Amino acid sequence: MPTRYAQVVVDLLHARPSPGEAVRIARTARGWSQAELGRRCRYSAGQVSRWETGRVALRDVGLLHTLARVLELPAEVFGLTAAAPTGDVPGRREAPRLAPVPSPASEEAVIAPVHRRVFLRAAALTGGTLAFPTAADAATHNAVAVDPALVLRERLHELLLGTTAATSTPPVGVDRLARLATAARDRFAASDYLALAEQLPALVDAAEATAASRPDPAAARALATAYALTCRALIKLEVSGLEWVAADRAQRAAREGEDPLLLAEARRLIASAVRRTGDHDRAQALTLAAADDLAATTRPGHLVMLSSLYCSASYAAARAGHRADAVDLLAQGAEAVDRLGEDPRRPGALANLVSHRVSAAHLLGDAGTALAHANSLPLSAFPTAERRGRVLVDAASAYMMWGKPDMAYRTLLTAERFAPGEVRTRTAVRELVSDLLASSRRAAMPGLDGLAVRVHAVA
After folding, report:
1. Model pTM?
2. 365: which residues sit within 8 A by CB, 6+ positions away?
3. Taking the chain, what is the end-to-end CA distance rounded to the nearest angstrom?
4. Which of 23, 255, 322, 431 could form a disulfide with 317 if both were Cys (CB 3.0 to 4.6 A apart)?
5. How many CA atoms does the CB half-sphere of 335 hold within 13 Å?
6. Kind and range of the H or E element at 222?
């Protein structure tokens, strides 16, 4: 370590600035641009900027350890112990250790100030208490005042970290459990995340109570569905480490439920949780291991899942910058779709494939290719609001990469029209809108300030 930089480290240990400020000071002392630090950590320059300015709170333990290693800072600069998880540094291949799950008490202590203000605004809707607003409250009051990401985050964190209420919840019939699971899936598909945040705890409690009273594969399948939806919802929010908890519980329940498709989905979600730690190669390997178990299948439902697994593996490869792998895996996903023939599930599988083609091209820096893929299917071909919102947000990101912020803005408005819950909940949208607010072409985007308020991209 150069002597001058060593003195910077000493000063940081003494002053203990905020994590974002420490990153800025260390990065500047090294002579790195935000893009260079982002490249070394596999994040965008815009994301580094958001850390340094405090627009995005740096509180994920795994990410902080990554920054400490890349910047050659003692972990103590970020208030961490010296022991660091592995698997989240470019080039490393060790099995990942995810960020430790905080206790409910410590979780409250690290809520960012901006989140605290939104939390209090949401609490005000329920009479000044700290109870969360219900979906009915959100419909009755101005929905903009309720941050769906905050409500979803707190409800799901409570679900995963709190004491289960299964002991006080009576068992229910398996038919009732199946209906509850279907209703939760429908809420996710509609991007109705406020309703989902209410339904998932009830579904988990009922399934846990039923499975405890009389072990039943049907109860386990409902429980696997609930935890899988919990994980998928958490993936739309900031990294918390709890994605792993939800995915692991989904896998355990899927094994008890004796359902190979639920098990494959749970394994895919575990790989997604690993990917969010930065270990993209490990995530790709885990996903392909699940795909290998279905590779010889001819059953339509299994082929749909096989295509989904290849698509997820391609996304991990694109995240790692492995262009050839990403293209090859998407080709294998397309082959699985082709094997469906005229099966009615083929259009949905094709839409999922196209969505991942858009994502992969964008991640690999091919904005024009991403937009060509996005326009290769009519929006009506994407069967749910969640999928429509997802592909439109990716298209907006591609327009931004292409230097067309006004088109990115218009695409986000279209996404909000078709999937308001998706646009107003996802962290990726908030980051994109923050970038639009900083654009030199802001004048060409009338109504941008209103969108920023609706998606909670402003404090």
Report:
1. 0.69
2. 401
3. 38
4. 322
5. 11
6. helix 217-234
**Residues 208-254: tens digit of each pLDDT:** 899 888 888 999 999 999 999 999 999 999 888 899 999 999 999 99
Which residues touch 263 (CB under 8 Å, ≥6 apart)? Answer: 224, 251, 254, 255
Other beta carbons within 10 angstroms of residue 93's beta carbon come to 11
Contact assessment for residue 244 and residue 283, using Cβ atoms and an 8 Å cutoff: no
Alpha helices in 125-216 (DSSP H): 135-140, 148-161, 174-189, 193-213
Cβ atoms within 10 A of the Cβ of 56, count? 21
Helices 427-437 and 45-53, packing angle to 10 deg = 90
**210 near 177, Cβ under 8 Å?**
yes
Give the tokens for residue 139.
């419909």
Alpha-carbon distances, residue 39 vs 48, 172, 205, 393 (angstroms): 10, 51, 43, 23
Q: Rounded distance, CA 383 to CA 273, Å?
A: 25
Using an 8 Å Cβ cutoff, are 362 and 374 in contact?
no
In the block, which residue shows the tokens 């009519």? Answer: 378
